[in-house]
Amino acid sequence: MSYKKSKIKRILINNYYDGVCERGVITFVRNICFYLDKECIEYRVFRCPSYLKNSKKHGFWFHLFEQVYIPILGLRYNVVLYPYNSISIFSIFHRGSLLIVHDFIQNRSKSPGYSKISAKIVRYTQFIYSIFHGNVAFITDVVLRQAQYIGFFKKSKKYLLPNIFYDFKKKAESIDVQQIENKIMLCTGFVPTKDFIGAIKLYQQSQALLEYELIVLGMGEKYSQAIEILKRYNISLNKIKILNTVSEQELIFLYKQSSIIWVHSLQEGFGRNLIEAYYCNKKVIASKITSFVVQAKKNKNIYLYQNDSPSEFNTALKAYLGSSFIKCDDVTCNLVFEKNIKHLLFS
User: How far apart are CA 212 and CA 257, in angstroms?
Assistant: First the structure.
């Protein structure tokens, strides 16, 4: 598709954590870049400087660059994307600034898994930006409704920019791996919103799963703590493997090799694992939380259970094991994303 050059806006994207981490917002931004490349749209991505890659204070450096450097650099660009829930207070002076909100977990008085300072910066910068009616985008309708409930961004110009999967889908289609029987891939995490302990309790209470090899993703640097929890619940370590960071290619291999994909969480802004599994032709057994319920309405390969109900988990697992993968018409919102990003960039 071609556009008149006079209408194309120069774009700056703050993706500080690209190269530091591998998932979450980083993946979201990479897919935006994939789309911009596809449409031959010029952009620049700011990433963590190489001399800071091994820093132990990425939270500090991220907020410093976001608050001071990005708005200065952004003066040379028509559009500046802030995709990490927070935004520079100086962005109110740049009409092309766009805050992208993935969730409101950090807006709680107690935001589990986040530093108090980081959570306060997110809350206060959103509040100030909201007062000045800054442009804002949400990744799901659920998050948009949460913003309305909180009372933020009432007079802001709002966009819906859903998670997109151009890059992941292309890679998944190019990788052919045989499934390994009796292998579970558990996607969870050590922060309280992910509930690793709750997942382990369900695993322990399900006799059917104890014979499976369990691969756990999402632990980050919490390997030793995860091992301690497994020992506390007297779970044999012989068939359990705790993985730290994996590349996207390694992740696709794991999806395709696993006979069961299990996603356990207490709260998610979206939940990429469910659609990633779909593009690997895999069903998912998952927690019955709002964002997953929304996805299950489109994707018939999702089997939900209440986190605190072993009987519901076993029922969902039985249904999962007794069914086949179903091709669905549209499990993503790529068309919505394309329509709204074009409106943002060319209006």
Answer: 13
251: nearest Cα among 185, 339, 345: 185
Tell me the C-alpha distance between 150 and 327, whole Å: 37
CA-closest candidate to residue 344, choices 104, 81, 130, 102: 81
* Strand-strand pairing, 43-46 and 302-305: unpaired
pLDDT digits (tens, 9 = 90+) for 73-127: 999 999 999 999 999 999 999 989 999 999 887 766 454 445 678 888 998 999 9
Is the CATH code 3.30.1490.10 the one for domain 5-164+334-346?
A: no
Superfamily of domain 167-321: Glycogen Phosphorylase B; (3.40.50.2000)
- What confidence score (pLDDT) does residue 2 get? 39
Predicted pLDDT of residue 3? 41
- Residue corresponding to tokens 């593009």: 279
Q: Which residues contact 293 (CB under 8 A, 6 or more apart)?
A: 304
Structure tokens at 215: 């691969």
Non-local (6+) Cβ contacts of 294 within 8 A are 140, 141, 142
pTM, full prediction: 0.79
Distance CA 184, CA 213 (A): 6
Using 70 as the pLDDT threshold, list the residues of the chain that sit under it. Answer: 1-8, 107-115, 332, 347
Q: CA of 78: how far to CAs of 10, 81, 184, 346, in Å?
A: 5, 10, 46, 11
Structure tokens at 170: 């292309």
Provide the pLDDT for residue 301: 94
What element of type H or E holds 218? Answer: none
* Rg, the chain, Cα only: 21
What are the phi and psi torsion angles at 321 (to 5°)? -70, -25
Strands (E), 24-146: 43-46, 79-82, 97-101, 136-138
Q: Where in the chain is the domain with CATH 3.40.50.2000?
A: 5-164+334-346, 167-321
Summarize pLDDT for 126-169 with one digit per residue, the tens: 999 999 999 999 988 888 888 888 888 988 999 989 888 888 88
- CA-to-CA distance for 195 and 121, rounded, in angstroms? 25
